[in-house]
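Quick note —
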Amino acid sequence: MTKIDKTDLENIKLIVKESKINSVTKIKIKKNDYEIEITSNNFVENNVSVQKIEKNTEVKDVENTNDVVNEDNIVKSPMVGVAYLSADPNSQPYVKVGQHVKAGDTLLLIEAMKTFNEIKAPRSGIIKKIVTLNSQPVEYGDTLIIFE
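Predicted structure written out below.
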């Protein structure tokens, strides 16, 4: 049996917070191809369904699926690798939802072939949503961050 690590706990906390789940009744974690499944009894009251994150998919809230996002407001992955929201596990994330960033500010890192690549803000603006999870594998073109 594989142990849950700090990254798994960070991802679970982020999913629960983003989906506004008040009480979690079941958590399932699968390490190969990384999958997290969270079940809650209050999903009908909060219009939140079970959240499942698999490799190469985006975190989506049921409440926000009707939002139309301008392509210019989406920061996509320029490469295949692993996304990191902070410089190291003990550091604060580079950005948070609601934070104002300037063009050129570092948003996150993508590790590819043992090289950490800074993903910079393409323009100034406010962070609306951080789609990628910490230590999540990303593919070329995956949505990482959405600006307002």
